[in-house]
Design brief:
There is one protein chain. This protein has a 7-stranded mixed β-sheet, sandwiched between helices. It has helices at 13-28, 41-53, 96-110, 125-133; strands at 4-7, 57-63, 66-77, 80-87, 115-121, 137-144, 147-155. Strand 2 (57-63) and strand 3 form a beta hairpin. The two termini are 28 Å apart. 34% of the residues lie in helices and 35% in strands. It has 4 helices and 7 strands, in the order E-H-H-E-E-E-H-E-H-E-E. The mean pLDDT is 88. It is globular and about 40 Å long. By secondary structure, it is an alpha+beta fold.
Length: 157
């Protein structure tokens, strides 16, 4: 397995759309559902265009021509970003998430960030392991919507 990050592009909309549909039920076990418009290819293209116009750093996780997931640095403010990532169910337990997070931390350093924060829904120990393996440390608890979340932080040095 060779995990690579590629910056998100509008041209990736169809591959991302298929990936999201294939993994919809899996993802919704851990995070809230996407809006209905996300599930239409044309709408997803517009969502990607909007994301690319923002200051966020968004990447797709590839192994050759297989889309395994995505990883994002969002809400960049005063040298700190929020980490978001998702790996398709078929790729869980193979190191794709850990490798993608390590690679995006390298991207964060290139962007001049000094810390990255993340949150994980309680009951998702696999995601906690990924973050801890990549140098994140617990940083509190918070309720977001109806989900109880554990907060993490990784100071970049």
């Amino acid at each position: 397995m060779t995990v690579e990050l590629h910056p998100l592009r509008v041209e990736d909309a169809e591959a991302l759309w298929h990936f999201e549909i294939e993994n919809r039920a899996w993802f919704e076990r851990w995070v809230g559902p996407r809006p209905d418009s996300y599930w239409e290819l044309g709408s997803l293209r517009k969502v990607i265009e909007g994301q690319l116009a923002d200051t966020d750093a968004m990447f797709l996780v590839w192994d050759g021509d297989t889309l395994q997931g995505r990883v994002n640095l969002t809400g960049i403010e005063q040298g700190v970003a929020q980490l978001g990532y998702r790996v398709g169910e078929a790729h869980v337990g193979r190191g794709a998430a850990s490798t993608a997070v390590e690679l995006v931390l390298d991207e964060a350093r290139v962007l001049g960030l000094w810390a990255v924060e993340a949150r994980v829904a309680l009951g998702n120990p696999a995601s906690v392991r990924v973050l801890e393996k990549c140098g994140f440390r617990p940083n509190g608890m918070r309720q977001i919507g109806e989900l109880d979340m554990q907060l993490f932080r990784c100071d970049l040095g």
